[in-house]
Design goal:
By secondary structure, the chain is mostly helical. It contains six helices and two strands; from the N terminus they run H-H-E-E-H-H-H-H. It has a domain at 1-77: Multidrug-efflux Transporter Regulator, Chain: A, Domain 2 (Orthogonal Bundle), CATH 1.10.1660. The protein has helices spanning 7-14, 18-27, 46-59, 64-73, 80-97, 100-194; strands spanning 34-37, 40-43. A hairpin with a 2-residue loop joins strand 1 (34-37) and strand 2 (40-43). Helix 4 packs parallel to helix 6 (100-194). The longest helix has 95 residues, at 100-194. The protein is rod-shaped, with a radius of gyration of 42 Å. It comes from Scopulibacillus daqui.
């Protein structure tokens, strides 16, 4: 599948042992973008960025819940279906072992993810509104440009018409002057010839 990675490709890119990558994929699965094809799981290239961030945070001694919160804070998208499955699994586990902290971690992560989703929805709505406003402005500018083109075209036609009229008048004047000069030459020639 084009652009998708197998687990071994992810392991090579992240630079940690396969077992560590497997643990991180399991622990942070809501943040790991993946595609299932039958029983085979492929990872999207974005998974590498998530896992590299996990690696960086583990190097800073962050625990699992801190990493989950940090991934949410940094705006990594969360797969809602995976989160739903994770919540069900965690609730079931927490009920069995009475692990209140695990449940609180999941609920906190979900809350942060929902806040982020709400922020993103608002941002998308604002962007759409800005885009619509920009499209209106663009339409107005197009209309103004068309008006200016028409104005320029009309002025050029008007100028050309005046110029052609002036050229014709000038040519007519030259013809008249030439005719008068020619007439005057002929008349003076005949006047000299006949003495008039």
């Amino acid at each position: 599948m084009d652009g998708l990675l197998r687990k071994k490709d992810v392991v090579e890119a992240v630079g940690v042992p396969k077992s560590t990558v497997s643990d991180w994929i399991t622990n942070f699965s809501p943040f790991i973008p993946k595609v299932k094809n039958g029983s085979t799981v492929y990872y999207k290239p974005e998974a590498i960025e998530v896992l590299l961030t996990v690696k960086e945070l583990r190097a800073q001694d962050y625990d699992m819940s801190q990493i989950s919160l940090e991934l949410t804070e940094r705006g990594f998208p969360v797969d809602a279906e995976t989160v739903s499955d994770e919540v069900k699994t965690t609730i079931s586990r927490a009920e069995k072992v009475k692990d209140r902290d695990a449940l609180l971690t999941v609920m906190s992560t979900m809350g942060k993810a929902m806040e982020r989703m709400t922020e993103l929805e608002k941002l998308v709505a604002e962007t759409k509104a800005q885009q619509l406003e920009q499209e209106k402005i663009n339409e107005q500018l197009k209309e103004k440009i068309e008006e200016q083109k028409q104005y320029i075209s009309d002025r050029i036609e008007e100028r050309d018409a005046k110029l052609m009229t002036a050229i014709r008048e000038l040519q007519d004047s030259r013809k008249q002057v030439a005719a008068e000069v020619d007439h005057e030459k002929k008349r003076s020639f005949f006047s000299r010839l006949f003495g008039r």
